[in-house]
Amino acid sequence: MDGQWNYGTVFKIYHSNTRSMARFGLLALNKGKWAGELIVNGDFFAESTDPSSR
């Protein structure tokens, strides 16, 4: 991804272009796989999208 971090006093914000964010969305949609190759562990995506307040 192309982009840069903005370190504010309260939040960290990642600024990127639309194409890079769309690629990240596809990576998340495919549970960490890109072109059939596992890039990020699929369990990570499952845990990061699971509601923590149960």
Please explain how this structure is put together:
With 54 residues, this protein is α+β, with helices and mostly antiparallel strands. The chain contains two helices and four strands, in the order ββαββα. The protein has a domain at 18-54. The protein has helices at residues 18-29, 42-49; strands at residues 3-7, 12-16, 33-34, 37-38. Strands 1-2 form a two-stranded antiparallel sheet. The protein has a two-stranded antiparallel ribbon with strand order 3-4. A hairpin with a 2-residue loop joins strand 3 (33-34) and strand 4 (37-38). The protein is flat. The model has no long low-confidence stretch (mean pLDDT 85).
Q: What does this entry show, briefly?
A:
The chain is an alpha+beta fold and 54 residues long. The chain has helices spanning 18-29, 42-49; strands at residues 3-7, 12-16, 33-34, 37-38.
Features:
54 residues; alpha+beta; two-stranded antiparallel ribbon; 2 helices; 26% strand; flat
